[in-house]
Design brief:
Elements (H helix, E strand, L loop, with lengths): L1 H4 L2 E6 L1 H18 L6 E6 L3 H8 L7 E8 L12 E4 L9 E9 L3 H11 L5 E9 L12 E5 L5 E2 L15 E4 L1 H4 L1
Parallel strand pairs: 2-3, 2-5, 5-6, 6-7
Antiparallel strand pairs: 1-9, 3-4, 8-9
Helix pairs in contact: 2-3
Length: about 180
């Protein structure tokens, strides 16, 4: 990953940090959903690496699905306009749902997703987020399971992107400002 490392100002969270956080969240989910077989809904595309890591460590029955939801539309800040590009493919009525997010930033996307899922009469809805950026929150919403709390930096890696790039980094780093300014 030397080619991409030149664009990174600093690595904030190593791959090892991410694995430790994923294992901790997996154990919490196991305890909270022991006999419930929750549906883990991965928000594409950013949460895909986190979902894959999280699933490796959950030792209860779960099912998975995917939604493609966006509020960034290629920029560096949430637009506040939520678009559902791909909806989950299974009937989730009466099911316990856990939204798997890469990051909770402004909170707009998560809040809209929670409202959307509650309208479908799910038994419960929670969120597992790899990264939480509480300094940037503009709506009152929190993830139930948080892997890593981050300062207000522009992050890329392990699913987090800038203009669809850098998702493949095995760590989370701060993108150099000259790349996106």
């Amino acid at each position: 990953m030397e080619n991409l490392l030149k664009d990174i100002e600093k690595v904030l969270f190593t791959h090892e940090d991410i694995v430790v956080a994923s294992k901790r969240i997996a154990k919490q989910i196991e305890e909270d959903y022991k006999d419930k077989c929750p549906v883990l809904i991965c928000t594409l595309k950013g949460a895909l690496p986190f979902m894959a890591e999280l699933l490796k460590h959950i030792d209860i029955h779960v099912v998975t699905d995917f939604m493609d939801v966006s509020s960034y539309h290629g920029g560096t800040e949430s637009s506040g306009v939520i678009k559902i590009k791909k909806d989950c493919g299974m009937d989730i009525e009466g099911r316990h749902v856990i939204i798997v997010e890469d990051i909770v930033d402004t909170g707009r996307t998560l809040k809209a997703l929670i409202e959307n899922l509650k309208e479908r009469n799910v038994a419960s809805v929670a969120c597992a987020s790899l990264v939480d950026k509480p300094e940037t929150r503009v709506v009152d919403v929190e993830a139930d399971y948080i892997g890593i709390v981050s300062p207000n930096e522009f992050l890329v890696g392990f699913g987090l992107d800038y203009d669809e790039r850098y998702r493949n980094l095995p760590y989370i780093g701060v993108l150099k400002e000259e790349i996106y300014s």
